[in-house]
Amino acid sequence: MTTSEQSAPAVRPGAVRFDGPEPSYDDAGLVFIGRVRSPWASRDDCPKNLSDARERGQPARVEIDARWRGALTGLGVDRWVFLLTWLDGAERDLALQAPRHADGPRGTFTLRSPVRPNPIGLHLVRLLSVDLDAGILTIDAIDVRDGTPLIDIKPYLASIDAPPE
Amino acid sequence: MTTSEQSAPAVRPGAVRFDGPEPSYDDAGLVFIGRVRSPWASRDDCPKNLSDARERGQPARVEIDARWRGALTGLGVDRWVFLLTWLDGAERDLALQAPRHADGPRGTFTLRSPVRPNPIGLHLVRLLSVDLDAGILTIDAIDVRDGTPLIDIKPYLASIDAPPE
Predict the structure, then answer these.
(1) Nearest-CA residue of chain A relative to B127?
(2) Where would a tag sit more exposed on chain A, N or C end, judged by fewer CB atoms within 10 A?
(3) pLDDT tens for each residue of B77-133
């Protein structure tokens, strides 16, 4: 690891970069299947997490590109689903981060920060409406910037997605 | 959508492919940060989901490559985390699938099947031991083949990862 003092700017005191040359980030490739349409125009407007987003009481939308709409078949209103997003714009090279809410630097894999080797967002949301033909889902809340790319939708299953007992 | 009869082999009756030419799958790139070491040598050996894996009572291991180990700092034993894996080998082009357990074809986004436009696996597991220096995590169970690439580790937070109330 390299201390933030030795390398690039714009990391908070205490943040630490991964050591060595940047990897090429091409071990596997993603296709964007749609976009999130949210009330949040910039990262600064974004709620800091989904609880915060729910408190603001503003629904959002997901737009699925035409090619992928068939895969929505059977998605029902009031269902909970995980959205996986691509948090473009997030840095990928911090091993330790110093979030405002914490009293010191924390390992990236103990945080839900967008800054991580693969900046994938995981968001549990409720479906308020589903338009299969138009490829539009309305969701109860979201904590990403307008236009954020979508990479997957998975049904929430309490039997595997909650700790047993 | 194209019916399975018109196109490639090896899909079950009722499965339907997405229409049109394959996309290039290069909207964004992933880096593999490690590998899952599981008791399951082939896809046929794999438990069908994490509940099934837990019933088999066989722990597994996650090996994190050296570059990324600093990001494990602070990960504690007995913590629940989501692992995100890259389910290499899974097809990416089915809109509808006909799982054995279902009575008919279902939309891919209503299933947790590895077959999806971006074959990312989401697995909630418990940490049994953490060796930061060696980059080795022992986990209670896993439902992927030995050698499956790892792309992220996220802490489970009941406040955002479980449906409210």
Answers:
(1) A163
(2) C
(3) 999 999 999 999 899 999 999 988 888 899 999 999 999 999 999 999 999 999 999
* pLDDT band per the 50, 70, 90 thresholds, residue B4: very low
The alpha carbons of chain A give a radius of gyration, in whole angstroms, of 18
Contacts of B54 in chain A (CB under 8 A): 164
**Among A25, A20, A129, residue whose Cα is nearest residue A72:** A129
Q: Which residue of B has its CA nearest to A53?
A: B160
Residues in Cβ contact with A41 at an 8 Å cutoff, skipping those fewer than 6 apart = A145, A146
Beta bridge partners of B120: B86
Contact A74 B106 (CB under 8 A): yes
Domains of chain B, each with CATH number or no CATH: 29-161 (2.40.30.70)
pLDDT single digits (tens) A35-71:
999 999 998 999 999 999 999 999 999 999 999 999 9
**Which pair of tokens denotes residue B50?**
């994490």
User: A28, B32: Cβ pair inside 8 Å?
Assistant: yes
Q: Decide: B60 and B123 in contact? Cβ < 8 Å.
A: no
Looking at residue B139, its pLDDT comes to 98
- Burial code (b: 16+ CB inside 10 Å, e: under 16) for A34-59 equals bbbbbbbeeeeebbeebeebbeeeeb
Record the pTM.
0.94
Selecting from B25, B68, B107 the residue whose C-beta is nearest the C-beta of A73 gives B107
